[in-house]
Amino acid sequence: MNSRPIYKVIFHNQGQVFEVFARAIYQSEMYGFIEVEEFVFGERSQVVVDPGEEKLKAEFAGVKRSYLPMHAIVRIDEVEKEGAAKVSEFKGEKVTPFPYGGMSPSDS
Fold this sequence. Notes:
The protein is mostly beta strands. 8% of the residues lie in helices and 41% in strands. The chain is built from one helix and six strands. The protein has one helix at 51-59; strands spanning 6-13, 16-27, 33-40, 65-69, 73-79, 86-89. Strands 1, 2, 3, 4, 5 and 6 form a six-stranded antiparallel β-sheet that branches. The radius of gyration is 15 Å and the shape is globular. The protein starts with 5 loop residues before the first strand and ends in a 19-residue tail after the last strand.
């Protein structure tokens, strides 16, 4: 078994829902953000190439770290192995972020 965990991160951005896989996720020192590092994409040895995953791979090429706003995160799961990254149009009702009444940076 792989000693390093893999996380599936689902978040929404500009009317789309992203599902990506990464090896490192943690709360950022930048207030209200989650840091996602070491993106994992499927191997190119597959015969069938998923154009959606290739688009995401190109979008995150050269990205060392992404800062995602906490209110954009839908779900984070620790998984046994990576799957296919994908992006899809959001279909359904508008998502309203849960009101956050936490401390502001000046309160700490």
